[in-house]
Amino acid sequence: MKFHLVLITTFAAILINSSCTTLATKGSAFPLMYEKNPLSILIAPPINLSTAANAKEYYSTTITEPLSEYGYYVLPYELTAEILKAEGAYDSELFHNLPLSSFREYFNADAVLFTTIDKWDMSYLVLASFMTVGISCELKSTDTGDIMWSYSGTLKVDLTDRSQKGLLAQAIATAINSAVADYVPYARKANFMVLSTMPVGKYHLMHGKDQTTQIQSTAR
Amino acid sequence: MKKLHLLLFSLIIFSACAQNTIYYWGEYPNTLCQYRKDADEKSLNNHIDQLEKIITTSNRRHIRVAPGLQAELGYYYVQLGRVDEAIKLFNVEMEVYPESSVLMTKMIGKVGGTKE
After folding, report:
1. ipTM of the complex
2. Less Cβ around it within 10 Å: N or C end of chain B?
3. Is B96's Cβ below 8 Å from some Cβ in A?
4. B56: domain CATH number?
5. Which chain A residues touch B64 with a CB distance below 8 Å?
């Protein structure tokens, strides 16, 4: 018993020291998700804090698929974004902190997913190049405005081609060829990663049964 | 050439973490992204083709079409003046996903009203 305690303490200490994260279960981290049991989600137009100008348009194409696969009904983004544009609400910064009851009335959305693109760039070193996509997400109830789930994650991809000669030439070629849209597959991957911490929705087999699934909760 | 490397690299990543999927997505993320990028008739038609294929394939496999895809296709049909087909799709979306009915009813009312 004592041995176990020591083991657990050591394990926790390593985790906290190495990455500032702790282990939690979905049930303990996001109890409101099980209480409110949201089904239909509206994706708010992403908030872009990165330096890439078109990241908002491209990134928004990568959320529907993972969110649907985790069991939710995702309101068709192409439609809802058009309606929000027409209503002058295409910048989510504007309504992020306002009551969201109009989203329930107009769209029948149980929740609104706010996403922020923190990082969307490429770093070039002499012999290597890395692509970084960093996102943070918040799922808010349209009933109460409560944050039911939130998470953030960064995906760093090593694009250095070590199999070829002339690494410097390769790095320069990457710099020239990589456009904002090339990040899309990585953004999609980052979304699958981040959204996997969300308790799954009605259309997923594990719905209502994943309270004990362990996740790494980000330190606040 | 570099693009090919990038593609290969991403394929390796994706196959390494293959997921069990509920729905069939085909090339959806790619054709949608291409449409966002080019925003022209060719990329739109290509994306519409893809959505039609996804619906046919899903039906053939007897799986539910992913949330919102039939509504999205209906929305493009409206833009092309194919109103009857659009309304049909909005109705199907509503049948499969009753939680979409508020928005779908609005869409049907909107395009039905502008028809004549």
Report:
1. 0.82
2. C
3. no
4. 1.25.40
5. 203
- The residue range of the domain holding B61 is 26-114
B116 CA to chain A: closest CA distance, Å? 22
Comparing alpha-carbon positions, the chain A residue that sits nearest to B22 is A69
Does B101 map to a domain?
A: yes
The 3-class SS string of chain A reads: CHHHHHHHHHHHHHHHHHHCEEEEEHHHHCHHHHHHCCCEEEECCCEECCCCCCHHHHHHHHCHHHHHHCCCEECCHHHHHHHHHHCCCCCHHHCCCCCCHHHHHHHCCCEEEEEEEEEEEEEECCCCEEEEEEEEEEEEECCCCCEEEEEEEEEEEECCCCCCCCHHHHHHHHHHHCCHHHHHHHHHHHHHHHHCCCCCCCCCCCCCCCCCCEEEEECC
| Domains parsed from chain A with CATH numbers | 29-200 (3.40.50.10610)
B75 interfacial to chain A (CB closer than 8 Å): yes
Residue B87 in any domain: the answer is yes
Task: Answer whether residue B16 is part of any domain.
Answer: no
pLDDT tens digits, chain A, 220 residues: what are they? 444 433 333 333 333 333 445 689 999 999 999 999 999 999 999 999 998 888 899 999 999 999 999 999 999 999 999 999 999 999 999 999 999 999 999 999 999 999 999 988 877 776 667 778 889 999 999 999 999 999 988 888 776 655 554 555 555 555 545 566 677 888 888 888 899 999 999 999 999 999 999 988 664 4
Assess B24–A contact: CB distance below 8 Å, yes or no: no
A185 to chain B: which residues are within 8 Å by CB?
Answer: 10, 13-14
Partner A contacted by B37 (CB < 8 A): yes
pTM of full prediction above 0.90: no
Domain count, chain B: 1
Chosen from B6, B21, B54, B79 to mutate, greatest number of chain A CBs within 10 A: B6
